[in-house]
Amino acid sequence: MSKKVIVAGGGLAGLSAAARLAYNGYDVTLLEKAPKLGGRAITIPLKGFNFNFGAHAIYARDKSVLRRYESEIGLEVDWKDFSPSKAYYDLGSYTTLMPATLEGLYRTKILDSQNKWRFAYEVFKTMASIEKGEEGIPIGQYLEKEPPKVRDLLLTIASSNFFTNEPEKIPSPLFFQYYKRLFSTQRAVSYIGGGWQAIVESFSKIIEDHGGKIITKEKVSGIELDGNRISKIIGKETTYTADEYILCIPPKELHQLFADTPYESTFEIYRNYSSTQVVVYDVGLKERIPSPYTYVYQKEKKVFITDISYYDTTCIPEGGQLMQAIAYLNDEEAAANKANEKVADIESVYDKHFPGWRDQLVAKRISKKAVVQEIKCIHDQKLLPVKLYSLDNVYFAGDWCQGEGQLSELSFSSAYEVTNRIMNKTTAS
Ligand SMILES: Cc1cc2nc3c(=O)[nH]c(=O)nc-3n(C[C@H](O)[C@H](O)[C@H](O)COP(=O)(O)OP(=O)(O)OC[C@H]3O[C@@H](n4cnc5c(N)ncnc54)[C@H](O)[C@@H]3O)c2cc1C
């Protein structure tokens, strides 16, 4: 008889874990509290446009764990690669090409020629693992030995990859580990044709085609323990038993689930960590606004705009345009409710680079407090391990868990690691 696995949470982590196990012959049931699957990876149709939460950008797709889901279990992804020649920095008085490629580095005005050599040397040292950072030293401090312009550029790049306006707080080892991977890829940024919806549907299909069950509107509200094992998971009206349990629900929910058990305090710390938050402002336009950019980052305001529909035409009605702007929020700004100021900042960047957008506006979607990553990767915050020594048949996955990359890559990679462990355990027993 095949092993039973319950997966709680139908975001990208839960879906990918459930799909891999169902494909490999496990008896999988996925429980999701919302009516729809996808969690934060959602696609919302509005007046003929498909607004995605997030630009659904996958970084270094040729090194992404998604490649393994594609080749091993038949995940279907319609990749749309980003054009670095259309990515610009807006530095206030001038706009210049991003140094995302060698040509971009040659042409950009963000550095003078001496600093370009220095920057290229930094990239080389990162790729060759000569630079690894130091445990306990944040990257802002670590880079103080660099010329100010080179340091500033490295931090600006980190700002956009980590979705943060405090890039200097990223732990230096994490910074170099991340950029070793990113600098050595041919596919630094790619989007998913059809948006998050396409990937959510592909994972769901794999689950159902392989006999897995998906139950939506089923909030997991409690657990029963038998020593150091979960013996039952409690839903709204049903209890579920399995051999292994994968909890792909955020730290706040985990803390609630383990309340009044000996494990409550374990989850307390993760619940209290701060998350990466942004303001998102998407606009759907009747007609395209001509522009040399598909990506522009306004450095001072820390706002970036992506022309999503340039890459993914499935998200627009014919002739239209869908753009997404994101402004980063640090903890103080989030607490002080600075979202309205960020909305005004974003509109001014749209005005500057896409004049006439207001006249073409058909639909817009503003989210003033979107959680990009549940646990922000800054010093003094740690991601949750995928398995605790003290709990035997329980695993964790999500962008709050230890894994590779950032954002959804953490969800996919932690899910992959968890499924490896369950499959290895079965082989061994
Ligand atoms: C504005 C924005 C932009 C982004 N841009 C990008 C990007 O360009 N690239 C990228 O890689 N990532 C991006 N991300 C991040 C990406 O969306 C997330 O990392 C990813 O979707 C997280 O998936 P997850 O499964 O780990 O968590 P979640 O999506 O949070 O999934 C958790 C799931 O658990 C369910 N749940 C919670 N509690 C319970 C319970 N008690 N019982 C049952 N179910 C429960 C929730 O409903 C949810 O479906 C962005 C996010 C945002 C908000």
TrEMBL record:
Q: Record's family? A: Belongs to the carotenoid/retinoid oxidoreductase family. CrtN subfamily.
InterPro entries attached to this UniProt entry: Amino_oxidase, FAD/NAD-bd_sf
Q: Mark the transmembrane ranges.
A: none
Annotated GO MF terms: oxidoreductase activity
Please give the organism. Thermoactinomyces intermedius
Annotated Pfam families: Amino_oxidase
What are the Amine oxidase domain coordinates in residue numbering? 12-405
Q: What is this protein called?
A: NAD(P)/FAD-dependent oxidoreductase
